[in-house]
Each structure stands twice: as structure tokens, then as C-alpha cells.
Write a structure and sequence with these properties.
Layout (H helix, E strand, L loop, with lengths): L1 H23 L3 H225 L2 H7 L2 H15 L3 H8 L3 H27 L2
Helix pairs in contact: 1-2, 2-6
Length: 321
């Protein structure tokens, strides 16, 4: 269309030029050129008109196709809208079905739990029923036994009644006899009291003799304690003298001569007495005697303390009962 308009403008210009040229009566050579150009332009116009007609036909056909396609598009859009509606409806239905499924599953779980609990209850009830049946059977057996025992106890009751009556008669007889025995007992008590007075006099005389013996025994015990105290003091004194003699003999180097001068029996007695007082064996006593002077001094002090402790111990024993 634009080329057509351009060509029409050019034609108008050429016509105008041709008119001006005819008016001016110009040379014949440019008019020929103009005619040729005009012919060419007319040919081009024809060609362009043909093309325009072709294109218009194609445009019409394309418009028809476009209309058909638009109609199809409208139909498809209607179908799509329907399909979307269907899809939305189906989605809603699926969501409803899912929610129902979840609810049904939860209900199934609750139903299963209730079923399990009911089954457990049924089992427990069946067990209870069986236990109750066994207990009822045992109770029936016990009832039968109890009825038998009741009949036996009734028989025993009647027998006991008869025996009670007999024993009541015996009891009355025994009461009469008891009265007789009480009279006899009173007589016996009087005789026994007389005999007890005589025995009391005899026991008093025996107690006096026992008291005299006790006084004699206490005197002997006092004499014994005095003897023991004196003996312990003399033992301690003799042991101290022996120790001083042994020290002096060791200092002078005359221990052996003293041993020869003294008899073996005296030495052995002294050692045994020292060992018993010190609660030491003979070998330990010899080791003590043969130790150094410093050790002897400390040991003599310890032995003197032990002797004092021994004296206190004996005094406590004597003071005790």
C-alpha cells in the first residue's frame, strides 16, 4: 500500500510535469522519456495492484483462519474453564476424601484400641467366670461337707448334753465332798500351824549357830587379809634388797662370788619370785640382769612401779568381797 501511494504520487507529479511541459512546449526528447517512465510506472502499478489483490486474498484467507482459530480458542478456553472447574471440584473432593480418610484412620485406631481393651476385658471376664465357677464348685463341695459336719456336730451336741447332765450330777456330788474336805483342811491347818511354830523355834536356834560361824569366818578372813598384806610387803622388801645386792655386786665385779656364796636354791627362789612378781620368764629376767647400767636404772624404776601396781592390785582384791 505504501508503494502504491508512492507510485500514485509519482504519477501525479509526472502528469503535472507533462502538463507543464505541454504548456511550455519543451523539447520532444524529455517527453519521450517521461512517457517511458510513465509506462514503466503503470506497469509497476499494475504489478503492485496484482500483488495487492493477491495479498488481500491471502489476508482474507488468513482472517478466516484467524477467526476459525479464535473460535477454536474460545471453545478451548470454555473447555479449559470447565476443566479447571472440574479440577477444582476434584481437588475439593480429594481434600474431603483425605480428611475423611484421616478421620476414618483415627477412628479405626480408636476402634482398634477399644477392641483390644474389650478383648482384654472379655479375656479377664472369662478367666474370672472360670475362677468363679471353680470357686462355686469348691463352695458347693464345702457346703456338702459342712452339712455333713453339721449333722455330726448335732449328734455330738446331743451326746454332750447327756454328758453334761451326768457331769452336773457328779459336780453336785463333788461339791458335797469339797465341803467335807474343807473341814478336814481346816483341821490340818491348825495342826500344821502348831508344827510350824515348833520348826520356827528350831530354825531360830540354827540361825544363831550360823551367825556365830559367820563371825568366826569373818575373823579368819580378816586374819588372812592381814597375812597377805604382810606377806606382800615382805616380798616387795626382799625383792628390793635382792636388787640392791645385785647392783652392788655388778658394780664391784663380784656377781659370780656372790652366786657361789649363796646357795643355788636361794638364787632359784629369788629368780622365781622375781619372775612371778614381774610376770616375766626366767630367760627374760636373766637378760634384764645382764643389760647395761642405763637400761638397769630405767628398768629398776619400771619394776618398782610395777611392784607398786601389784601391791595396789592385791589391796583392791582384798578389799573386794
Amino acid at each position: 500500500q505504501q508503494e502504491k501511494e508512492d507510485l500514485q504520487e509519482k504519477l501525479k507529479l509526472r502528469e503535472h510535469l507533462s502538463q507543464t511541459a505541454s504548456k511550455n512546449e519543451a523539447t520532444p526528447t524529455p517527453s519521450k522519456n517521461i512517457d517511458l517512465e510513465m509506462k514503466q510506472l503503470q506497469c509497476k502499478l499494475k504489478n503492485s495492484n496484482n500483488e495487492i489483490s493477491k495479498q488481500s486474498t491471502t489476508i482474507k484467507s488468513l482472517k478466516n483462519e484467524v477467526q476459525d482459530k479464535e473460535e477454536r480458542i474460545q471453545e478451548l478456553q470454555v473447555k479449559i474453564s470447565r476443566m479447571e472447574r472440574d479440577l477444582n471440584m476434584k481437588r475439593h473432593l480429594i481434600e474431603d476424601l483425605r480428611s475423611r480418610l484421616k478421620a476414618n484412620q483415627e477412628n479405626e485406631k480408636t476402634y482398634n484400641e477399644t477392641l483390644q481393651s474389650l478383648e482384654r476385658k472379655v479375656k479377664a471376664l472369662t478367666e474370672e467366670c472360670s475362677n468363679k465357677k471353680t470357686s462355686i464348685d469348691s463352695l458347693k463341695q464345702r457346703l456338702n461337707v459342712a452339712t455333713k459336719e453339721k449333722s455330726q456336730y448335732e449328734q455330738l451336741y446331743h451326746k454332750a448334753k447327756d454328758e453334761l447332765e451326768k457331769k452336773h450330777l457328779k459336780f453336785t456330788n463333788l461339791e458335797s465332798k469339797m465341803i467335807e474336805t474343807e473341814c478336814a483342811m481346816s483341821a490340818l491347818e491348825t495342826t500344821a500351824s502348831q508344827q510350824l511354830h515348833g520348826l520356827a523355834k528350831q530354825s531360830g536356834q540354827a540361825l544363831e549357830t550360823v551367825q556365830k560361824r559367820l563371825l568366826l569366818a569373818n575373823d579368819k578372813v580378816d586374819e588372812f587379809t592381814v597375812f597377805v598384806k604382810a606377806l606382800t610387803r615382805e616380798l616387795q622388801h626382799s625383792i628390793q634388797e635382792l636388787r640392791t645386792k645385785i647392783k652392788q655386786a655388778k658394780k664391784k665385779g663380784e656377781v659370780r662370788t656372790c652366786k657361789k656364796g649363796l646357795s643355788q636354791e636361794c638364787v632359784q627362789r629369788a629368780r622365781s619370785l622375781a619372775a612371778s612378781i614381774l610376770n616375766v620368764s626366767k630367760t627374760d629376767l636373766e637378760e634384764i640382769l645382764e643389760a647395761e647400767d642405763d637400761e638397769e636404772t630405767t628398768k629398776t624404776k619400771m619394776e618398782a612401779e610395777k611392784d607398786k601396781e601389784w601391791l595396789h592390785y592385791i589391796q583392791k582384791l582384798l578389799e573386794a568381797q
